[in-house]
# Entry
Amino acid sequence: MRLPCSIFLSVSLFTAETTAALYLSSTYHSAGDEVWQKLTLLFSLVPSILVQLALIFFHRDLGRDRPFILLLHILQFGPIVRCLEAFWIYGSVGRVEDPYVSITRKKHMSRRGKPEEVERQVGQAEGKLVTHRAAFARTTVMQAFLGSAPQLTLQLNICVLQRGVSVGRGTLMAISLLSIVYGALRCNILAIKIKYDDYQVSLSPSAYLCIFMWRSCEIASRVVVLVLFSSVLKIWVLPVVLVNFLAFFFYPWILFWRSHSAFPQHIEKTLTRVGTAVVLCMLTFLYAGINVFCWSAVQVKLSDPDLINKSQNWYRMVVYYMLRFVENALLLLIWYIYRTDFYEFISAPLLMMELLGVYGACIFFMLLFYTSCHPCRRLFNPSINRGLENCRGLLCLSCITAELTNNPRMEARPGGEVAMPADCNISQDGGCSA
# Structure
């Protein structure tokens, strides 16, 4: 049984960000910045309340006699208590024999590429730990994109307006960025486990590194673009964000309406039709919040019994990144046209190219993950694998062109390979001599 490190990391980020936000709001209060203080508290306390409600919902505490746990959730100490409970369950494994043991069957990917089904026993304690991990994985995503992402955007905007970064503000921004990246990483892992539920999925360190670089570049470039645009056109940034949010919020509902499916009734037995509608609205609200800042690996499908689309929609992902790249480029172009004297000390064209280059790097790491580090890449369609390889090769086209220009005798092959002629010897400086 694995140590619940993911739970500890989620709670640590949650506690650190809340503490830093409370400290920073007190400094804003001392400086007389009431607006910044209220917004900082808003983006800290509202997601914290949503996390408490989500943990109560996932653990079904309303139907159980646990008044002390409910009181701790009201006092905003729920995640800490849940973390301690998870470690207590982990420490008690093996001391008392589980009265109930279930059998699970999972497929393992062998080196030959053929899946092998393996049976294993799951005790009651391990089942409780699985519930804790699943609950914290979902609440981490909520905290990241409903709290940390708006908080990071707000604090970076304040840095631009005040032309400086204080220690407290810089600390909060660093923790918020880590929280968003970790939430996006958990979202990727959730998507893989949901889509390949029959397989025992485990990610390698290289896969974690690729996802971390992919999400860091994507989120950092997106937040900086929005802040730069809002610094010159403060009012127009609201329509941009609102159009993005509403488009992704209503998209699952439009698909559900077109499918003519019955209204979901299987989410929770104790929920009424109104309660089910509220839960579905919260789910699509979170889905829209994620897609405003980065690609949501988990796709909502209200007509599915699990509310998640288990098929890999490559076309939707390609369209998303193409449109997001064009949108970022247009926002940067508008910022360049209307930029003020404040940006005279930096090279605006260089900054634009750097931000677009960072977003291009995020696409490169995404393709690298799906072609080389995805734990279930052997299950992909062969044509999809070839398409991903070709897309990744296109990103290196400029490098290949430069090599062909420097060495005219080099031969370019299909697929991006560069071959030397038969009578060519490689010199020490990388050149070609007959």
About this structure: Residues 398-406, 408-434 have pLDDT under 50 and may be disordered. The beta strands are 101-109, 115-123, 411-412, 418-419, 425-426, 432-433.
